TrEMBL record:
Protein name: Xylulokinase
Naturally occurring in which organism (per UniProt): Kaistia soli DSM 19436
A Gene Ontology biological process term: carbohydrate metabolic process
Signal peptide: none
The family this protein is said to belong to: Belongs to the FGGY kinase family.
Protein's UniProt keywords contain Transferase: yes
Length: 469
């Protein structure tokens, strides 16, 4: 039986486990809901319950694969900002984990941003989603804010190894980490009243071996199973695609659209809305990304099957009479109340404008990335929306460039599994010839038409970036 490597994806909605072999072929995948409960303020995660759920999921995935040998190595990817305090030594939770989307720390984020704007060093601004804002909220509202902080995505690996750590791409999501110097910023940690922090480890660093426990008792793992640092799910998923093309620009079309690239040298325009951070595996350089609420914009049209079916009925002529429409928050709010609102068939008449406006946001982001130091490279689309062939064909035309789509739905989980594989010397940087890649080319005449229309709005970056995450 082949050696197997496990990737865990700890998501906002679901947790997933993926088993791959040394050639990167997937043998089994399992999913279950992320366990949530509530405190007096909002949704929270009990980290001990999460570990138990992940252990059960790994065992179920291992059994489904038909494996006989224990898993060789495990790594994890997941939510970027969630975390908890633990008791040093035992690593037992001393707090619940507040999810990134919880808004209870809005006042703390505003306080930090007004006093200490630092995005040039950290690559991100203080927002209610950031770990730093949650630290300050906990310090102000909890009687027991002592302890050691662990990121929720890292927590299972820390428990199984008995070694506390923080993956570097998760440290970067706190808004207190200098992503160029690759070090904490003491002034920001003090302002956020941060708890004690563990050592930061780069993606792919070996944490240690699995200690005896439920997974070794089940046979899915042994005390020789190695545990490997992973990190934030977005760059880990992008690393899967960049194994096939090391310079790829990744356009992930999920509920939110994430555009991700890496550059050896980053020179942003003043006032840029791009986010820069540490790359997932490179020793130097920067990752560059932008998040746009694509799903939120397209939801205005009503159910996805309705507007996706309508894609085949629109043509270039449907764009000719109006100037390009930009999906700002105010424009979307106004559109949502026209023609009877979402779900009304008349809303589909706005499909061409929405389709073009959203693609123009993506196009402007890619152009700015190229200006900032990203190499001109193929664009690979992924995520749920990319499974629509008509949508991919239209976006290729609207972006004015070919798009490539990889047939792999669990890219974060597979990306984490491949980090585990490489870190124990069981595959190196092998390409994965089994991964099917589809190509979508723009229609030449229509692409020229939309390129001219894009030039009318290219400078209006404020409107184009109005749905910044």
């Amino acid at each position: 039986m082949q050696a197997l490597f496990c990737g865990i994806d700890i998501g906002t909605t679901n947790i997933k486990a993926v088993l791959v072999d040394a050639d990167g072929r997937t043998h089994a995948t399992k999913t279950r809901p992320t366990p949530r409960t509530r405190d007096e303020t909002g949704p929270v995660t009990n980290a001990s319950a999460l570990v138990a759920a992940v252990e059960a999921l790994i065992f179920a995935t291992w059994r489904a694969s038909g494996a006989i040998r224990p898993i060789v190595a495990i790594s994890s990817a997941g939510v970027g900002e969630d975390g908890l305090t633990v008791a040093p030594g035992t690593l037992a939770p001393t707090s619940v984990s507040i999810p990134w989307f919880d808004r209870r720390a809005a006042a703390e984020a505003e306080d930090l941003q007004q006093r200490l704007p630092s995005s040039t060093l950290t690559g991100i601004v203080f927002e209610p989603t950031r770990t730093a804002a949650k630290w300050l909220w906990l310090a102000r509202h909890s009687e027991n804010d002592a302890g050691l902080w662990l990121a929720l995505t890292d927590y299972p690996l820390a428990v199984w190894s008995g070694r506390p750590f923080m993956s570097e791409t998760l440290a970067a999501r706190t808004a207190c980490y200098d992503v160029t110097a690759r070090a904490w910023i003491p002034e920001l940690l003090a302002a956020a009243r941060a708890p004690d922090l563990p050592p930061v480890l780069a993606a792919g660093a070996v944490i240690g071996a699995m200690q005896a426990g439920p997974l070794t008792q089940s046979g899915a793992c042994s005390t020789e199973t190695m545990l490997v640092a992973g990190g934030h799910d977005h760059p880990v998923a992008a690393s899967f695609i960049r194994r096939l093309d090391r310079d790829a620009i990744v356009d992930s079309l999920g509920t939110a659209e994430l555009i991700y690239a890496e550059a050896s040298h980053y020179a942003p325009r003043p006032g840029t809305s791009l986010v820069h951070s540490v790359p997932i595996t490179a020793a130097a350089g920067q990752s560059i990304s932008y998040v746009f609420e694509f799903g939120e914009a397209m939801r205005v049209l009503g159910p996805a099957p309705d507007w996706q079916a309508a894609l085949g009925r629109i043509s270039t002529a449907d764009f000719a009479s109006d100037p390009p429409w930009l999906p700002s928050r105010s424009a979307l709010a106004a559109l949502a109340h026209t023609d009877g609102g979402a779900g009304n068939g008349a809303m589909l008449s706005h499909l061409p404008a929405l389709l073009e406006g959203c693609a123009f946001v993506t196009r402007s982001v890619i152009d700015e990335m190229l200006h900032a130091g990203v190499k001109e490279s193929p664009v690979y689309s992924s995520g749920g929306w990319s499974r629509s062939d008509p949508l991919m064909r239209w976006r290729a035309t609207l972006l004015g460039r070919p798009l490539f789509r990889i047939d792999e739905s669990e890219q974060a989980g597979v990306g984490a599994a491949l980090l585990a594989r490489d870190s124990v010397g069981s595959g190196g940087d092998k390409a994965m010839p089994h991964a099917r890649v589809d190509r979508f080319d723009p229609d030449p005449s229509a692409a020229a038409f939309h390129t001219e229309r894009f030039s009318f709005v290219q400078a209006d970056l404020t409107s184009l970036r109005a749905l910044r995450h």
